[in-house]
Design a protein that fits this description.
single chain; Alkaline Phosphatase, subunit A; 10-stranded mixed beta sheet; globular
Length: about 325
């Protein structure tokens, strides 16, 4: 299954339910029966760089592993393209990149394209984007997620350093240097947005687009320590895996928060990545149409709805 097909189908169902009340009160009374939607996307994460796919016994991704067990794991989940920007635009529009003319990196998404954020906003949702945008050149006060249906955002035009980043813009203004770990920073912002919508009893769409594991790689000592006893990993690989584990921890924090807010049962949570990377598991990697470039990790979790398929793999 491709990212554009999975996201387009899921969001079409969401919009229909919001407009017609097709799922009624069983989705939860807090927002009128309309499910929340969270689309989390990693950057340059290979199919074999997560533990739950079963081919890597070194990398530590316990939170994503738990999500894989309690939800649905796609064993053949394909990105729309083998590189960043076109896949991201495909997620937003549900269309193939050649249909909307965005086939390179850092190109502008045409304003006339209908995005899932615009569709859900018409259905009464509040929309937010947090992390890497990569669909605007130049990223600026006038060219940013606001043009495509996002009410709130803390976003970067492209990549970001992992510690004390200064590449972020918040709702049209430069954010300056933000102290801390990049993964934690963007998740802090996303969780603040989610809490606000829960308090106001509004359904929401949150796009959480990590910079992990694209260069420049970086991680705190907490996560580097996980790989110090692996001499088979060079320094670069230890740093990369630590970065991935940092992202995994933030996915765990997100899942815990959804349960503490009592909205997990009313939230469709998706995780994937924008393109593959070269690993020992698949042929080739990023920029290639072989499996290594387009076959990526894919998870969907929806407690109560997905529970009957506990641990199910879909090929």
């Amino acid at each position: 299954m491709s990212t554009r097909v999975a996201v387009a189908i899921g969001c079409l169902v969401v919009v229909r339910s919001g407009l017609e009340g097709a799922w009624g009160a069983e989705w939860g009374p807090a927002n009128g029966g309309r499910p929340n939607v969270i689309l989390a996307i990693a950057d340059d994460l290979g199919w074999g760089e997560v533990a739950f796919n079963g081919t890597n016994d070194v990398v530590k991704t316990p939170c994503l592993d738990e999500m894989a067990e309690s939800g649905i794991r796609f064993t053949r989940f394909y990105a729309a393209t083998p590189w960043c920007s076109p896949t991201r635009a495909s997620v937003l529009t549900g269309r193939h990149p050649h249909r909307y003319g965005l086939v390179g990196v850092s190109m502008n998404l045409r304003q006339e394209e209908l995005t899932v954020a615009e569709a859900l906003r018409e259905a009464g949702y509040t929309t937010g984007h947090f992390g890497k945008w990569h669909l605007a050149r130049p990223f600026s006060k006038n060219i940013n997620p606001s043009l495509h249906g996002f009410d709130r955002w803390l976003s970067t035009g492209n990549n970001s350093r992992r510690i004390d980043p200064n590449e972020y813009w918040r709702d049209g203004e430069r954010a300056g240097v933000i102290k801390g770990s990049d993964n934690q920073i963007l998740m802090d912002e996303a969780l603040g947005f989610i809490r606000e919508q829960v308090k106001q009893k509004r359904p929401f769409l949150a796009l959480i687009w990590f910079h992990t594991a694209h260069w420049p790689i970086g991680a705190t000592e907490e996560f580097l320590a996980l790989y110090k006893d692996h001499p088979e990993l060079d320094e670069g690989k230890q740093m990369r895996y630590a970065d991935i584990s940092s992202m995994d921890a933030e996915m765990g924090r997100l899942r815990r928060e959804l349960r503490e807010l009592k909205i997990a049962d009313n939230t469709l949570l998706c995780f994937c990545t924008d393109n593959g990377m070269r690993t020992r598991d698949l042929r080739e990697g990023k920029l290639s149409l072989y499996e290594g470039g387009i076959r990526v990790p894919g998870l969907i979790e929806r407690p109560g709805r997905v529970a009957p398929w506990y641990g199910r793999r879909i090929t």
